[in-house]
């Protein structure tokens, strides 16, 4: 079975390609480092973290980047033995292209294409030419535009021309072009990446149009399916398997309760595509489900992700914020030393934070903190962004006493909602956080320190439009701390 979402947790704006027997999905990363995470699968069911593409400081300038700015929707393509990535650094107002002969690099330096628009995409025609599309305003016209591109330099070979103004005129974005049965298909998303999100499709016999609109309902939409656990479906990318089956990857959110709250972020889903009268339809009349049968012999993925500090951190889907300093993350004899400078709530700061995406509503995150060299503050954090997080803080106040506090940061307010003193009874403490659909609960050993409402980590309760999801991780502030051996995240759903 395909069990949705195929990429759980904060993994939005998926783009997929196939190369040498493997499928690769690239997703947005916004203000986080490294940029553009890539996952791989040989069977469309078992997906594992593969690599990240924007790994070098010269590839990714996020200094002063706002929350939910930074790296927007990527498109990943494979053509004639080479991978192509095109994406947007919204913070720097740059759409750029990178290429590589291997998914794991080395990747070329970013080649700037233009400043206008977001959601860039590439299409390689049968004659080998590369066609670039994005949304935006060009020559006074708003919508989806396109032009031929020199994919060796990132240079547009002609002015951008309007392909379609869309259907609703509301957040017309996420263009991708495909060719099938002598038709060019232009897939777009509209309605904004919230509960009005959906996908439309157009087609033309000519790559540069004019494109005609599909006459029936959107080809992907849960706008009128409010009781379903999957909502806000959109931003899709179609692909055809080697045996001729068509599928789509797309983003959506899993909601709980009548308030339609979601805290895991926009996730990546997968569904079959049917062709009816030479028009594509995703799922069943645009509706998609949590599972689909697939003719492969597969087993479920392991519910635990263990980050072993004796192995390179680049092997894991770990995230840092904005401009992390390499000397603040030091692996020593199988442990991880964090050196903290900025506090987590510093506006546009660069906190020493290392986190995993929360991938299910019910989960347990665990780490071990050494007390022998603890300086300043350190601990565990449930992190939505610098304006919304809850941290379990450990401080040494004497040789035999620790101060433990639960500090919540919401909007422009920060407060320690729970605190206590603990005697040091050894050289380490185990910190953990358990999650469910009501709260996050924070423990030192078996002692519950306090809890935070799940509403503190939901997009619907933020004071501005946010595009990310909750992370669980470790941090250090105003000092240094050693985390022992590993940290783990276990899914219980």
TrEMBL record:
GO terms for molecular function: hydrolase activity. Keywords: Glycosidase, Hydrolase. This is Glycoside hydrolase family 43 protein. SUPFAM superfamilies: Arabinanase/levansucrase/invertase, Concanavalin A-like lectins/glucanases. It comes from the Bacteria. Pfam families: GH43_C2, Glyco_hydro_43. Belongs to the glycosyl hydrolase 43 family. Residues 320-478 form the Beta-xylosidase C-terminal Concanavalin A-like domain.
């Amino acid at each position: 079975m395909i069990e949705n979402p195929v990429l759980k947790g904060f993994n939005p704006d998926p783009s997929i390609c196939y190369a040498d027997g493997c499928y690769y999905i690239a997703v947005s990363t916004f203000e986080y480092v490294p940029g553009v995470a890539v996952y791989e699968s040989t069977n469309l069911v078992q997906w594992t973290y593969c690599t990240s593409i924007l790994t070098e400081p010269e590839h990714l300038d996020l200094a002063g980047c706002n929350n939910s700015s930074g790296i927007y929707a990527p498109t990943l393509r494979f053509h004639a033995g080479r991978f192509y990535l095109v994406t947007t650094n919204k913070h720097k107002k740059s759409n750029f292209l990178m290429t590589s002969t291997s998914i794991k690099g080395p990747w070329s330096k970013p080649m700037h294409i233009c400043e206008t628009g977001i959601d860039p995409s590439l299409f390689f025609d049968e004659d080998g030419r590369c066609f670039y599309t994005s949304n935006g305003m060009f020559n006074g016209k708003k919508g989806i535009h396109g032009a031929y591109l020199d994919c060796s330099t990132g240079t547009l070979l002609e002015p951008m021309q309007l392909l379609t103004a869309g259907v609703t005129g509301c957040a017309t974005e996420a263009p991708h072009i495909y060719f099938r049965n002598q038709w060019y298909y232009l897939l777009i998303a509209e309605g904004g990446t919230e509960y009005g999100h959906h996908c439309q499709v157009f087609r033309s016999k000519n790559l540069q149009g004019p494109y005609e609109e599909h006459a029936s309902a959107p080809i992907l939409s849960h706008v009128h399916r409010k009781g379903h656990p999957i909502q806000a479906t959109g931003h899709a990318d179609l692909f055809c398997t080697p045996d001729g089956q068509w599928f789509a990857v797309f983003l959506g959110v899993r909601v709980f309760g009548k308030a339609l709250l979601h805290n895991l972020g926009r996730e990546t889903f997968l569904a079959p595509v049917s062709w009816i009268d030479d028009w594509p339809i995703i799922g069943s009349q645009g509706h998609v489900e949590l599972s689909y049968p697939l003719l492969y012999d597969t087993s479920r993925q392991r519910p635990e992700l263990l980050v072993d500090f004796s192995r390179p951190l680049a092997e894991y889907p770990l995230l840092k914020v904005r401009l992390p300093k390499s000397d603040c993350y030091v692996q020593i004899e199988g442990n991880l030393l964090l050196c903290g400078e900025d506090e987590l709530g510093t506006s546009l700061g660069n906190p020493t934070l290392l986190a995993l995406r929360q991938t299910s509503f019910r989960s347990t995150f665990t780490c071990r903190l050494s007390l022998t060299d603890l300086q300043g503050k350190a601990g565990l954090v449930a992190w939505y962004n610098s304006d919304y997080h809850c941290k379990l803080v450990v401080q040494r106040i004497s040789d035999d006493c620790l101060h433990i506090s639960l500090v919540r940061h919401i909007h422009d307010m920060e407060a320690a909602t729970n605190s206590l003193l603990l005697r040091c009874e050894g050289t380490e403490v185990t910190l953990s956080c358990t999650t469910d659909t009501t709260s996050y609960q924070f423990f030192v050993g078996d002692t519950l320190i306090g809890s935070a409402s799940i509403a503190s980590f939901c997009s619907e309760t933020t004071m501005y439009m946010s595009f990310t999801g909750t992370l669980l991780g470790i941090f250090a502030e105003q000092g240094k701390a050693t985390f022992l051996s590993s940290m783990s995240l276990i899914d219980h759903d």
